[in-house]
Amino acid sequence: QKEVEQNSGPLSVPEGAIASLNCTYSDRGSQSFFWYRQYSGKSPELIMSIYSNGDKEDGRFTAQLNKASQYVSLLIRDSQPSDSATYLCAVPDTGRRALTFGSGTRLQVQP
Amino acid sequence: DAGVTQSPTHLIKTRGQQVTLRCSPKSGHDTVSWYQQALGQGPQFIFQYYEEEERQRGNFPDRFSGHQFPNYSSELNVNALLLGDSALYLCASSLRGGPDTQYFGPGTRLTVL
Q1: Is B101–A46 a contact, with Cβ atoms under 8 angstroms apart?
Q2: What's the angle, vertex CA B111, arms to CA B7 and CA B32, rounded to 5?
Q3: Of A36, A66, A109, B84, which has the fewest Cβ atoms less than 10 A away?
Q4: DSSP label of B25
Q5: Do B99 and A4 touch (CB under 8 A)?
Q6: Which one-letter DSSP state was computed for residue A68?
Q7: From the DSSP assignment, how many helices (H) and strands (E) are in chain B?
Q8: What is the pLDDT of residues B36-65, one digit of tens each?
Q9: Option in B98, B101, B103 nearest A49 (CB)
């Protein structure tokens, strides 16, 4: 059974700061990784995917992957109050059809 | 471009009843996966339908069943409802049975009293 671990938070950062969200996973064979954002009462929205070691940037978001350490992170630059949400890390399971999610990290951006 | 749609939005049932939830995948997608999300938890995989067959199943009892229609839409059925079945039920669509780029619908909030 794959495991995906996230700190539940809340992680509180001031507006304009960099928010750093972390995720560890148990299966060394995992090849792809996904970050979803979920606003309260809404469904998850895919914001980033990463497949190779290193950094992948998309606007204010940067995903970082270190397969040797089994660690994936999401950086949000110039955090805005609208970024306040729960961020879910997900990894495809052994059958390669389902996603295994962490429990999510709640981010609060203080104006 | 139509996104993933789900119905109904909210549902209240009592213990022992049966419920059917519906999902239409994003335009161009042929695969539907169902997830259950309890409060404060990440989504948990129930099962996936591709080519009208259940392709993979998570750790859920047989009370949870589903179906996929030729137009790729899908239903999730839950029998003999328990209080613990109260959750947000999410449908995600993708292509060719893969987990990559799964897009979620708005969800159905099920409350079991």
Answers
A1: yes
A2: 40
A3: B84
A4: P
A5: no
A6: T
A7: 0, 11
A8: 999 999 999 999 999 999 999 999 999 999
A9: B101
